[in-house]
Amino acid sequence: MSQKLALNGGAKAVTKAFPHFPEWDQAERDAVLKVVDSGKWWMYAYTPGELAGEDQLNESLVSQVELAEREFSKLHKVKHTLAVTNGSMALDICMRAIGLKAGDEVITTPYTFFATSSCILNTNAWPVYVDIDPETYNLDPRKIEEAITPRTRAILPVHFAGELCDMDAINAIARKHNLVVIEDAAQAQGVCLEGERYAGSLSLAGTFSLQASKCLNSGEGGLITTNDDQFAEILWSLRHCGRKRKGLWYEHERIGWNARMNELTAALLRPQMRKLEGQNQRRMANVSYFFSELKKIPGLTPIKLHPKATKRNHYLVMIRYNAAAWDGLPRKLLIDALTAEGVPFGSGYTFTNFENPAFNDPSLYSDDSPLMIGRTKPVNYREFIDRCPVAVRACREEALWLTHNLFLGDKSHVDMILEAIRKVKANVGSLLAAAR
Ligand SMILES: Cc1ncc(COP(=O)(O)O)c(C=O)c1O
Predict the structure, then answer these.
(1) CA distance 273 to 267
(2) Cα 173 from chain centroid?
(3) DSSP states of 142-200 as a string?
(4) What separation in Å is there between the alpha carbon of 214 and the centre of ligand 1?
């Protein structure tokens, strides 16, 4: 097979459209319209029913936000869920809630969206990066202990691409060094380990994003989960302008934010939540087939999945590219050729979090920087290039991303992706020749 590449004017390997995401129907339309017509557009248009048990709950008297929170708690088998404005705010709230002090350090991954780093910096603490595991692209627990200093207070792992981190190993290190663990589960809705141990319930608290690209999405939005009653109270207060439960409306016991989700967002989220499990099952079947076929193609290695996960969402379908097995074809050329065939491959993050220009701001490191409180030396972000070679390689040359909607169809959609890959592989010579 060496038909002419689409990049060179040939016919595309993809002959029909991939599924669109989000999927919605009358349930979403009805839910949103009902809120509009109620005239109750924020959660405090209702008296909180939060202390009522399921059996006493009259749905028409309870806010959509509170119902969404209850439903997500059930879905993720967790005691408390708090709905907020977005996943970044969920992280900001958690970093404040764990009581970070200026100058503290939080260990995290360099291979993530910048909100995982900015939430730490927003509390005047320093993100300290630990490299990712070369097979999973998640924080490598074997490298955490060497990054711990007397200023380390917490670990913030990310379940990247929706794949769970090795939380048993991370929690064991945290216990040994008396550190708090918060999971950035922005990408891990509906994902669990054996025993229905869900993302967001594997540490003190988990944060989720409901932004449009996510597997569970309400356009924008975020959730925080925890099994800890006391911590839930702090989160509740921070999300609600620092108020106190049963306190006066204008009484603020701490400095928080108005980070409440609005009723329209929650109404849209609830029917989406009911669709999540079915969508995840479809993706699991399709990705399992895709990976079993992909293993036959040299130079394209599927990311290693958590061996004990029983439910996955495949938010991103990740492949590690080894150009040597493709005669040195640069990743960009491969992506261009595959995209021309109709499969929108991406390279994802093209540099790590610590290479972001935000770290070039001299005011972070000046003597009067709040981050310097109680410290003699700043964290040196230039050092992480050498300390995190796996993440650097993933960004610069190795990672290939496919988005989850491509795997929401059936086997024929997966076959088109495979067909495109095989076709490009058969034409590597002509691609390289044209590039010379
Ligand atoms: C790992 C991670 N953390 C945090 C966020 C921030 O979520 P949001 O966009 O809802 O603020 C995202 C969103 O892309 C993410 O992927």
Answers:
(1) 10
(2) 22
(3) GGTGGG--TTEEEEE-B-GGGPPP-HHHHHHHHHHHT-EEEEE-TT-TT-EETTTEETT
(4) 9
Residue 217 Cα to ligand 1 midpoint, Å, equals 12
Parse the chain into domains and list their residue ranges.
6-22+276-348+394-435, 26-274
CATH of domain 26-274: 3.40.640.10
pLDDT tens, position by position, 338-394 = 999 999 999 999 999 999 999 999 999 999 999 999 999 999 999 999 999 999 999
**What does pTM read for this prediction?**
0.97
Q: Is the CB of 158 under 6 A from ligand 1?
A: yes
Measured from the CB, is residue 207 less than 6 Å from ligand 1? no
Work out whether strand 180-184 and strand 205-209 pair parallel, antiparallel, or are unpaired: parallel
Pick the CATH number of 6-22+276-348+394-435 from 3.40.50.620, 3.20.20.110, 3.90.1150.10, 3.40.50.1460: 3.90.1150.10
Contact (Cβ atoms closer than 8 angstroms) between residue 140 and residue 130 = yes
C-beta 189 within 6 A of ligand 1: no
Confidence of residue 149 (pLDDT cuts 50, 70, 90): very high
What is the Å distance from ligand 1's center to 420 Cα?
30
Nearest partner of 14 among 420, 425, 427, judged by Cα: 420
Quick check: 50 pLDDT over 70? no
Q: Which of 106, 113, 159, 318 for a ligand 1 pocket mutation test, highest count of atoms within 8 Å of Cβ?
A: 113
Q: Is 417 in the pocket of ligand 1 (CB under 6 A)?
A: no
